[in-house]
Structures are given as C-alpha cells and as structure tokens.
Amino acid sequence: MSNRIDVKKTYKLFINGAFPRTESGRTYEVKSSKGSFIANPCLASRKDLKDAVVAARAAQAGWNKATAYNKGQILYRIAEMLEGRRAQFVDEIMVVTGVTKTKADKEVTDSVDRLVWYAGWSDKISSLSGALNPVAGPYYNFTIPESMGVIAAIAPETPSLLGLIDVIAPIIVGGNTVVVLASTKAPLSAMSFAEVLATSDVPAGVVNILTGKKDEIAPWMASHMDIDGLDISGLAVKSHADIRTAGAENLKRIYSFKSADPGRILAFLENKTVWHPIGL
Amino acid sequence: MEDKLSFEYAPAPESRAVVSIKPKYGHFIGGKFVAGTKHFPTINPATEETLSAIALGSKSDVDAAVKSARKAYVTTWSKMSGKERGKYLFRIARIMQERAREFAVLETLDNGKPIRESRDVDVPLAAAHFFYHAGWADKLEFAGLGTSTKPHGVAGQIIPWNFPLLMLAWKVAPALAAGNTVVLKPAETTSLTALLFAEVCQQAELPAGVVNIVTGDGSTGALIVNHPGIDKIAFTGSTEVGKIIARAVAPTKKSITLELGGKAANIVFEDAAIDEAVEGIVNGIFFNQGHVCCAGSRLLLQENVAEEVLSKLKTRMAKIRVGDPMDKNTDLGAINSHEQLLKIRELSAAGDLEGAERWSAPCELPGKGFWFAPTLFTGVTQSHRIAREEIFGPVLSVLTFRTPQEGIDKANNTPFGLSAGIWSEKGSKVLWASQQLRAGVIWANTFNKFDPTSPFGGYKESGWGREGGRHGLSAYLKGVSHE
Amino acid sequence: MNFYGLVDGTEASLKKYLGALSGVDQVGADARAAMLATRSIKTTSKRWAIDTAITMVDLTTLEGADTPGKVKALCTKAVRPDPTDLTVPSVGAVCVYNDMVSIARTHLDLIGGQHVGVAAVSTAFPSGRASMAVKIQDTQDAIDAGASEIDMVIDRGAFLQGRYIEVFDEIVKIREICGTKAHLKVIFETGELVTYDNVRKASFLAMAAGAHFIKTSTGKVAPAATAPVVLVMLEAVRDFYSMTNVRIGVKPAGGIRNTKDAIKQLVLVNETAGPEWLTPSLFRIGASALLNDLLMQRMKMDDGYYASPQYVTID
C-alpha cells in the first residue's frame, strides 16, 4: 500500500460550470511553503477572462430571476458542500501556506460560517436597504436594490479561501454573476472551491474562477466594457489608480473592501426607484 | 358673436421688478462676496440681452474657497451638533420659500425656462430639498446600512445649467446635512440664482465658509476636481465630462458621485391610458425644453397603437405654447445657449440625413434668442444617432416594437441607464416592465416627477450614486466597508 | 336605431365597443386639468369669453319649490340677462322640470325669446329610478309641452352593475322620442359613476346611442362638473369626432359658479376638443348663480371698477 502512487489533481479554470484548461496553454508552478512542487495551475489569459465574462453575462438574467429564497438556499448549499470537504481544504491551505492545522482549520470554519452568513442576507437586504419614499404627491414610490450585472473581482492573496468567499458571496447573493481571479500563490483552495460550487446547484456561469497573475488580468478586467463592477480588494493599493482610471471608460463601479458587512453586498447593487400614481 | 379665433391667451408676463441684478458679480467665499478678476457675460437666452458679468474663477479663487471651506469644516461645522446644523438648513428652506418669486424670475431670465416651471417646479422643489435634508442632520445614525455617520469633509460640487437652483439644492442640502462644507461651481451660463442663494446663506447667518460659491467655466470646474484639499466630488452633467472627472479622481482618495446623461425610453404599451400617455410623452421630452438628463427622448410605441398615439401626440404638440419664458402661459421656453442650439440642430440634421422623418409643431419662434420648435422624428431605428445620443433638447425620437419583450430589449439597448417610462393600465405588466428596465428611475404612468425623498440616479454610464432620499444622503457620508 | 354603425344593438357588440376604450389615469388627468387651469386669457378675449359663456348658459331652476312665477322670472333673465345693457346676449336655454316646460316656452315666446331653448330634465330626473314606460311618457310629455332639449339621466345603477346594454337601449329609445323635435343631452351623474374610466365609458356609450350632448351631472350630487371630468368628456367627444366625423356637445353642470370657473371650462374646451367646440351648439354650462357673476365681471370690464351684486338681478 505504501508504494501506491497518488493520483494527483490537474488544476484547471472554472468557466460556465465546466473546468477548461486555459486557452493559452500556459501554466505556472505552485510550490509548497517548503519549496516543493505542488501543482501547475493555469495561467489564465485575457481571452479566458473574455470567455468567462460571456458566461457570466449569459447566466446573469437567470440568476437574477431566481427568488431570494432560492439564492439563499443555494448559498447555504455551498456551505454544506464545503463543510463536507473540510479536510481537503485544511490540507491544501496547510501545504501551500505552511500555517498550522489549527489556523487552517479556523479559516475553513470561518469560510463555511461566512457563506451561511451571506446566504441569510439574500432575502433581507432589500427590506433593510430598500425604501418606501413618502413623496409629496399622489404617487406610490419605492426604491429597491437590484443586481448590477457582471462583476469581476480580484481575490486577496491570503486568506486564500476565506478571502475568495468574501469576494464571491456578497457579489452573487444580490443576483450578480462573478468572474474572480483567485489568489496567485495559493490557488488550490480556489480551484477546489470550484468543485464545491459545481456540486452545489449553482447555475453554470454564475461563478467563474480564473487562476493567474493579477497584474496581467486586472487591467483587462478594468477595461472590459461588459463588466459592470469590480472588486479590487485583492489588488495592491499601488495599482488601484490605474485600474480606476481604466474602469472610468464605462464608469465601472470599483471598490476595495476592508471587512465583511452588508455594505459589501450593497456596493454591487443598483438602487432603482419606481413611481406610480395612486388613483382610481 | 365674434369669430371663434378671438379666444386667445394673454401674454401674462411675470414682473421683473422683483429681482435686482447687479452689473457685475464676484465669488462667495468665507461668507462674503469677493471681487473676481476676469469676467464673462451671462445673457438671457430668450432675448440675448446681457444680464450681468460673472467672475471667472481662477486658481487663487478656488484655493481661497477650499481653504475657507476647510476652515469652516474644522472650526465650526464638524463640531456643531446635527440638531443645530439642521436648524440652519430649515432657515435656508424658509428663506427660499419667502423669496420664491425672486428666485423663479431670476432663474427664468438666466436660464430661459418658462416661468411656470421655475415657479411651480424648480424653486419649490429646491426649498423642499433643504427642508427634507434639514431633518436628516440629527438622525445620521439611522441613515441605514453601509454608511457611517461621518462626513467626508470638504465637498466640491459642480452643477449643470438645466436646473441651476434645483441642482444646487440637490448638492448643497445633503452635503450640509451630513456635516460637510462645500465649494460649489454653478454652470457657466446660469450663475445668478446660485449667487442669490449666497445671499440666502447670509440671511440665514450660516457660518462663514460652510458654503462657498465660485463661478466660472470648465476650467474652474477642473480646478475644483483636481484640488488636493477636497475630499468629495459631486458632479452633474454630461457623461463625457463625467468620465474625465472619474479619471481625474481615480488616483486620489476623493469620494465621488456622478449624475450624468441619459437616453430614456418612454414605452407605451397597447393597454396604456392613451390621453395621459400623450401628456406624459409631452412632459417627458418637452419639460424644460428637453434639457433634462432623464428626458423621455426615445418614444417606444407598441405597433398596434402607434398610429393613434402619434396622431394624438401631434395634435397635442401643436398646442404647446412656445415663446417668452416670462409669460405664464408659455410651455416651452428658450434653448439655454447658442452652443446648445447648435448641438440640437446638428443632431436633428443627422436624423434627417439618416432617413428619419422630421415633424415640428407649427409655431412661431421669436426673432431674437435661441429657439427650437417641439419636434419629433418618426421612422427612427435603434442604429440612428438620434436614437443613441443625448440631444438635450425638445426633440423626440419615435421607435416602435411588437411585443413587450422587444420593447424592453430596445429600451435597455443603450450604455445609459438613468430613467425610463412605462405606460400600461395593467398592473402586473407595469411591475414586470419596471423590473426589466435597467434604469435608476422608473416612471410608470407618469414622467419627470421629482421629490427630495425619492432617490434619483443612474445605472451604467448614467452615473455613480443617488441623490435624494436616504440613498442620496449616504453619498455624503463615509462608507463603512469600502472607500 | 343604429347610429354610426358602431354598435349593432347587441350586448356583444356594445361590450366589444366599450372594451376597446383605453383607460384613464386619474392622477394624469387631474394634473392636465390643473395645468390648464393656470392659463390666463387676453383681456379682449376675456370679454368675448364672458359673452360666449353667457350664450352657453343653460339657466337652470330645478327645485321642488319652483312656481310659474319663478320660472317666468328666470325666462325674462334668460332673454335679457342685464336689463340695463342690451348688448348682453341671451343665454342658450332655460332648464326646468317637465311641468314647467309649457310655462317657460309660452313666456319666452311672449317676451321675444323665441331663440332661447327650453330644456326639460327627463326620465325620472334626478335619480332615474322609474320604469321605462314612465321615462318614455316623461320625455313625451316634455316634448309635447314644447321642450326643444331633453336632459335625460342614465340609470346609474344599471351602469354600475354592468348592464350597459340597458343603459344604451334607454338612450336609444329616448332619442327616438326626441326625433327631430328635441336635442338629447345625456346626464351621467359623474359623481355617482365615480371613476374617470366610467366617465369615458359612459361618454362613448351615450354617443354611440345617439346623444347630441353628454352632460356631467344633475346638480343634485357632488362632486359634479370638476375640471378633470370635463376634460375626460372633451377627450371623448374629440376622439368620437375622429371616429365618426360627428361633433357631440358637452355640458358641464353643477359647481360652476363664477366667471373664473367658466373661463377655465372654455380653456379646457379650446385645448382639448378644440376651438370648434366653443359654441353654444356644442358646449353648454348648466348653472344658476354663474350668470350673475358673468354679468358683474362684464360690468367691471366696461366700467373699470368692481361691481356690486346690487346691480344684477336676483330672480
């Protein structure tokens, strides 16, 4: 038994519910914290980004139409699936980052709990951030938050799993679809998380995950005219100015977040105000 | 009995006597009027008469204004309780109501809009904005999710010429309520009511430097946008300029809100209340000469009612009274500037060239001043320039659709997303359409309605953020989770 | 009888005809009417408007206490509203209960008021609650007594219950009785129909059934001739004209008490149906107190100072 050769996983991208290799054929090497080879994940190209945006755009209307209850259940389902595979995520976090088992365990626990927390927001955010506006006239007037569309995101380098969930969950819970670039140095949990997503009733295209280099992909995200918003929490602050400048071309909503709170969900929601006369 | 045609409306001109316009104005900095250096004329677009000379804000003017705003922020305004700040806003609201006639006349003289509109819409709404936001000043902790109770500091605000006083109110009232101080630049062609507002601030005994007004053109605006002493930029104007500002602010820590252009679809379904829809179409595109970012400039008619609606619309358009803005019977006033008139003419000519059919209401246009007759184009398709670009004038592009989904798809087929109109007597269809439309303000069975309690602002390239209501207030408070 | 070929007399065809009407948005209609109320008219036009309004008045007395003396006085006023100024035109008609028709006609003829019509309120005015036989008899009596105009009420109960065909048939029958002798005005009692949708529906129903005029109210129910109700009716006659090339008249009645109200009505007519309707043959105002105010405003325009009610007659 001890002579058995492991069957190792090939880490690929996650686009439109499938696991394609990068169209560029490029990979990069991920090493353990001790310097040994772990995997050759895809080095995604701008064309992979383009494909992922097409998938995200196609999926957006359907995902947006899902009831808040349904979306909440699907996010909760992701948490269930993640919980079931805790051991794998703990191992991957430990081997790549070199943190202790206790620390890795806590990150996975927090990740599961964070997903559950965001799941619960799906059918509450509208009632807390919407409004019935008492206009001075015979009109019924209300404001409701609505999905913004396709959001791109740069996940932080660490924590690689919790950080990823903190960008994905608030974006999708409001009905957006997302194209996210995972942690470059620690992409394993992101690609394993894609497997969780694939078994969690998340419709194809709602979440798309790329692995690769931030400096290569982020400018293409910023300039892409079919991306409505951009979370640059995972991007070095020195790059923010250029990204924001490029994003101005289609007035993308670009944010960088410091914490997990409802504001993170609201940032990628648009407020729509509807007027209707009240009369016979 | 005499001839029926003798039933005519009287020119019922509003008296100019209520306003006194100085021959020359300076800036309002630190609670005082300070002399400008260079000046440019501001004219009445209805007569081309020069009304006054407006100061062109220079770097030192903007510096002085920002310095004064900062000082007021640090020493006074940020230390004052919300309750007391609110009282100043209430005072301002009341004084604006007291001097409403003066504001309305001045606005009409400087802008060219009908006195009926400045009197019944712009000025009362401006006062209402102050009254509404006054009440927020001591309730910021209840302003909702995602915002703190902390103001940004000094806000630089640049406003357009289409609703000069109202846009000032949209900007200044929430900024002050939230505890910011402001440097405001009115539009080049319409500074007079902002300068009158400065007098109101004095009468309200607003602490010096809380509101600073620097007049000027785009160069003055750029000085404000790029000023390092400013924490928050709020701009209303074209998408083109909005993008320039967004780029300018990108490398900085400045917070920013933008309220930009639109090309709103006004969708008339087969089951609409046709007569009210026609009124709504007219109000949608001819209100304020069509100088409205949220104007219903693309009329989408369901094909089975298109003919009826068009015929009624033309009849109705023929009744629009174009002329002296000071006449209380006037519906459509003067185009704000010669430059804007040229732009409207250019885009309309493009409509002719692209094969759309032009129809203008038969009306006599005054000899002097800048005028454009109420006009519609039929046979417009999605790929025509007049269906895509903002004309910002009294020109309506008419398109048709066959099914509700096609109507929605055409409506959403634009990089803009400010507003949209829906006309249908069927409740579920109205709600369906308002859900489908990608725009920040949906007017269902009405159009061009505004209220301080109602958030206004666009999706996509129509801007960032909202103005009005709790959502608008949050633009003047720091976010808790993001910068 | 089948007017215009719009309805063939069957319930199905009437339902189809009424079902094709677009709805009316109350808030939008109110806003339009309010906006038109801000129009001001030229002084020269105002003089013309006052005189025109006088010719449009259906000078009305509809009281249980009416006596021949009261009606005769009303007729005198109708012919010569201002005995001191003979340039003041006569009103359009006097409007009285059935039993006063012959008194009114006789007296008008006696004092040179042949050109002033006599309108009789008919079909169990104001409630309309009587059998068809009685309504027919009521109308016949009025015509026999010399009425040139019949102001009938519709059965609002039937209308609100959706028995449109009965309402339609009643109007058709009364119009048959009117024949060529009398013009038919159909009163909806809009205060009881309540919604503008109903006002529009009733307007089209009555026009297709052969009404010469559509009239808002009996004067016994408030609200009566509000500006938006009149707006909706004017839009109906305008649309009906575009369908049939026939101009139907409109008569607001009830609540129009002063010159300002009357001029606002004329503005509504001018902007909505069009100036073609600015004639007593297509627009009437049912009123009693209005006439004196019109006269006082007329005096003010002539004299340049405000008039006193002491100088206009109370009849």
In short:
Chain C: One of its GO terms (biological process) is deoxyribonucleotide catabolic process. Chain B has two domains: 16-260 and 460-479, Aldehyde Dehydrogenase, Chain A, domain 1 (3-Layer(aba) Sandwich); 265-444, Aldehyde Dehydrogenase, Chain A, domain 2, CATH 3.40.309.10.
Describe the structure.
The complex is a heterotrimer of chains A (280), B (483) and C (315). Chain A is built from 10 helices and 10 strands. With 280 residues, chain A is α/β, with parallel strands linked by helices. Chain A has one domain: Aldehyde Dehydrogenase, Chain A, domain 1. Chain A has a 5-stranded parallel beta sheet with strand order 7-6-5-8-9, sandwiched between helices. In chain A, strand 6, helix 7 and strand 7 form a beta-alpha-beta unit. Chain A is globular. Chain B is α/β, with parallel strands linked by helices. Helices cover 39% and strands 18% of the residues of chain B. Chain B is built from 15 helices and 19 strands. In chain B, the strands form 5 sheets. Chain B has a 7-stranded mixed beta sheet, with helices on both faces. A 6-stranded mixed beta sheet of chain B has the order 8-7-6-9-10-18, with helices on both faces. In chain B, helix 3 packs across helix 4 (115-134). By secondary structure, chain C is α/β, with parallel strands linked by helices. Chain C has an 8-stranded parallel beta sheet with strand order 7-6-5-4-3-2-1-8. Chain C has helices at residues 11-19, 26-36, 43-56, 68-79, 101-110, 132-144, 156-161, 164-178, 190-193, 196-209, 227-244, 259-272, 290-303; strands at 57-60, 93-96, 117-122, 149-153, 183-187, 213-215, 249-251, 285-287. Chain C has one domain: Aldolase class I (TIM Barrel, Alpha-Beta Barrel), CATH 3.20.20.70. Chain C is globular, with a radius of gyration of 19 Å. Chains A and B meet through helix 5, strand 4, helix 9, helix 10 and strand 10 of A and helix 8, helix 14, strand 17, strand 18 and helix 15 of B. Chain B: GO terms for molecular function: oxidoreductase activity, acting on the aldehyde or oxo group of donors, NAD or NADP as acceptor. Chain B: Keywords: Oxidoreductase. Chain B: InterPro entries: Ald_DH/histidinol_DH, Ald_DH_C, Ald_DH_CS_GLU, Ald_DH_N, Aldehyde_DH_dom.
